[in-house]
Amino acid sequence: MIEKGKSVLLTLLVVLSLVQSYFLAYNTPYKDAKVKSDSDYVKTERLGEEEKADNLVFPEQLIVHLGEDKHTVFYPSTQTFYNLIMTKLKLREFKGLQRDSVESVDWAQIRKEDQGVELRFGRAVPFELLQKAFKIDGDFLFFGDSIDRIWIYSSKGRDEVRTFFFSSDGNYVYESMHADLTIGDVEGFVGFGQYWDPYSTSDGVVYTPDKPTTRLFEMEVAYNKYTVEQMQDNLFFDPGLTKTIQSNKSGSQMYTDGKRGMKIEQDGTWLSFTDLTARTEVNNDLFDNVMSAIGFVNQHGGWNGKHLFVKDAESETGESVVRFQQYYKDVPIVPDRGLNFGYIQLFLEQGVVSTYNRSLVVLGKDATNKHKRELPGGDELRKKLQALRDSGRPVEALFPAMKPTILEKTVSLTPVWAARLTTGEVVILADSKPYV
C-alpha cells in the first residue's frame, strides 16, 4: 500500500513537472524573459509619445532651383509646399546607386541653369537611417557612408531626371540610375516655388532671402513639466534607494543610487542623467547608436513634441554624441547661450547610453498673444552673415527658428534667423522686429 502511494505521488510530481515545463517554454510572459541585472531599467509609466526613426529624419530645408539662377527655399514651416514635395518623394524608389567623384558634375552650372530640388539635412545621415525615410535600394555596397544632401534635377535640353546622394565627406556622390522620377515631378516642384520668396546665394552653400519675411509669429505657449518623481521612476532601477543632494550654489537638485546620477536644474526644466555602469571598450557604429538613442528616449521620458536628428559627433572620451532638435509648429527652437532648452542629447558607446540630457518642459498645442514679426533679408542679413564669417566662424546653413524665454507659466517664442557653423554649433544670427 505504501509502495502504491509512492508510485501515485511520483506520477503526480512528474505530471506537474511536465506542465510547469510547458508553461515556462510556451507561455508568452516568460518566453523572452531575461535575467535582471542592476544595469537594467524598469518599464515605467509612459510620459511623452514614442517615436519612429523615419519621423526623426527629414530635410532641414528644400532648395528649389527654378532655372536662370533663380531659387527659393522651403522649410518644414512652409507646410503646404514642403509636405507636397516630401510626400511625393517618399513614394518614389531610388535604385541602382553608383558611386563617382563629386567633381564628375559641374554643380555650379547645374545650380544656375537646371531646374530641380535639393534636400538638405541638418547633419550627415547614415544610409541605413535614410532608408527609414526613403525607399533606397538595399542592395548597396557603400552603406557605411553617410549622406547630407540629395539633389534631383532635370537636365536642360535633355529628357531625363538625375538623382544624386552626396557623401558627407565631400568626396563622392551616389547616382540613382533607376529612380522613378519624371520630368513632370520636377516641373511640379519648381511650380510650387515660382511665386514664393526669392532667395540668392554667392557660394551655393548658404541661401538668403532677397527681402524681409513676415511669415512667422511671436507667441506664448503654456507648458507642463515632467516631475522629479516621474524621471526617478523612469531612470533608476529602484527609485527607493536613491539619495537626494541639494546644491545650494546653483539651486539644482541631484539624485544618485551610487551608480547613476540625475541632476535637475533651471527651476525643474532641464535634466542631466549619467550612468557610470555604461562604459564599454568597443568601436562605435553610428546607425546602431542612433537607433539605440531613439529607443532609450522612447522608454525613458518619450518625446515632448516634434524632433529632428541633427547631430552626430564624438566626445573627448570617444563616445558618440547624438542630438535631436525640438520643433514647435514645424519651426526649430534655438535658445540663447546659457539656456538649455529645445533638444535631447545622448552620449553612447555601442548602443549603451552613458549620458542623457533633455528638456523637461512639455509645450501645449495652443498658442496665445500671437504677433506677426519681421525677419531681415537682403543686404541687411547678408552683412550679418559676412560679419560672422569675418570673425573666423564659417556658416554652412541658415534657417528661421524660435528663440525661447521661459516665463512662470508660459514659454515665449520669438522668431529669429539661426545659423549653423561648420563646427556644428548653432547660433542666433539676427532677431526679428515687430511688424507694422
Q: How many H/I helices?
A: 9
Summarize the biggest pleated sheet.
Answer: 9 strands, antiparallel
Approximately how much helix is present in the residues? 10-25%
Beta content:
35-45%
Structural class per helix/strand content? alpha+beta
From the spread of the alpha carbons, the general shape counts as globular
Measured distance between first and last alpha carbons: 105 Å
Radius of gyration: 26 Å
What assembly state would you assign to the polypeptide chains in this entry?
single chain
Low-confidence stretches: 1-41
Mean pLDDT: 87
Tally of structural domains: 3
Protein name: Two-component system activity regulator YycH
Organism: Cohnella soli
Pfam family, one: YycH
InterPro entries: YycH, YycH/YycI_2
Task: Explain what this protein looks like in three dimensions.
With 436 residues, the chain is an alpha+beta fold. It folds into three domains: 53-196, no CATH class; 225-361, YycH protein, domain 2 (TATA-Binding Protein, 2-Layer Sandwich), CATH 3.30.310; 365-434, no CATH class. The chain contains nine helices and 25 strands. The strands form four sheets. Strands 12, 13, 14, 15, 16, 17, 18, 19 and 20 form a nine-stranded antiparallel beta sheet that branches. An eight-stranded mixed beta sheet has the order 2-1-4-6-7-8-3-5. This is Two-component system activity regulator YycH. Pfam families: YycH.
